[in-house]
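Moderator note: this is an archived Q&A kept for reference. The question asked for a predicted structure of one protein chain; the sequence and the answer are reproduced below.
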Amino acid sequence: MQRERIAEAKLFAGLTAAQLERLLAISSEVTYLPSEVIIAAAEPGAHIYFIMHGRVVVELEASRLQQVTPDNLELAILRDGDVFGEISFLEKKPRTARITAIDEVKVLRIPNLELDKIFEEDGRLGYLVMRNLATILSQRLLSIGFRLRDNF
């Protein structure tokens, strides 16, 4: 994904070119193979991930569910331009779900500690990214709510 497409993503909406470059400077591109677990539930959260290419599945593991079920609970399939790992960043708690690559997936991996430092140094950048994360999470919550409503 080119810088222009990254700049158009919801996570980076409203950022100046300099602010985006600052985030890209602390990020690394990582590729995961199909079926590779990117995030395991309950592990410490050290990064936020931005999907540049590919798809991932977000699941709650059956062993972590309160009900007796042999299957994992699929919460979402995320694609190009989506973000994951943000809840652990926001809550400063271990991961809540497992994220597995469906295809070959290329992500920007943004380290939480460096991101916190940048937010402290540039309050406007921090505000914009946090506002964007809030919008993304709000849209996900609405989507899940509609799915649940339609299934009952």
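Archived answer notes: Residues 51 and 107 are 4 Å apart (CA to CA).
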